[in-house]
Design a protein that fits this description.
metal-binding, four-stranded mixed sheet, hydrolase, alpha/beta, Collagenase (Catalytic Domain), RNA endonuclease activity, 6 helices
């Protein structure tokens, strides 16, 4: 998977490298993402930008931590031939202020929380959906936990009281 990364108003360095590491971990737990033909656009941006995207595309008038905009459905992804032209899998957008607030509330590093949200978003782009059923939610969470463990990050679901 190829990444197109745009960093707007996220303080510090290392976000591009983090996204690359997360993509590698996501590919290891969801091999359908590992195609060289796939491209994912990742935008590290502000709450205001994510709020606008959420309002425009999802009719939700608020910011959120991560937005996923798939451009292939799961069947198309699974049927993707190894050879052929590039395919845009989708776009992800992370909202800095919301991510930072959530990380502080969970008493974890912003980079660890951002990694979790990137894995979560990439799995959404691969067609996983935690909102369809409890079984689907458990499967998606298990993949997230496994990918994050590869990155040396603990189980983000270990304390259910901190979930949103």
């Amino acid at each position: 998977m190829q990444l197109e990364i745009d960093i707007e108003e996220w303080p510090g360095d290392g976000w591009e490298r983090l996204a690359e590491r997360v993509a590698g971990a996501a590919c290891s737990v969801a091999p359908e993402l590992a195609s060289d033909r796939l491209t994912v656009s990742i935008l590290f941006t502000t709450d205001a930008e994510v709020h606008e995207l959420n309002r425009q595309w999802r009719d939700k008038d608020k910011p959120t931590n991560v937005l996923s905009f798939p451009m292939l459905d799961r069947t198309e992804l699974l049927e993707l031939a190894p050879d052929g032209p590039p395919e845009m899998l989708g776009d992800l957008a992370l909202a800095h202020e919301t991510c930072a607030r959530e990380a502080a509330a969970k008493d974890i590093a912003l980079a660890d929380h951002a990694a979790h949200l990137l894995v979560h978003g990439l799995l959404h782009l691969a067609g996983y959906d935690h909102e369809t059923s409890e079984a689907d939610a458990e499967k998606m969470e298990a993949l997230e936990i496994k990918a994050l463990a590869e990155l040396g990050i603990g189980d983000p679901y270990g304390d259910r009281d901190l979930e949103e």
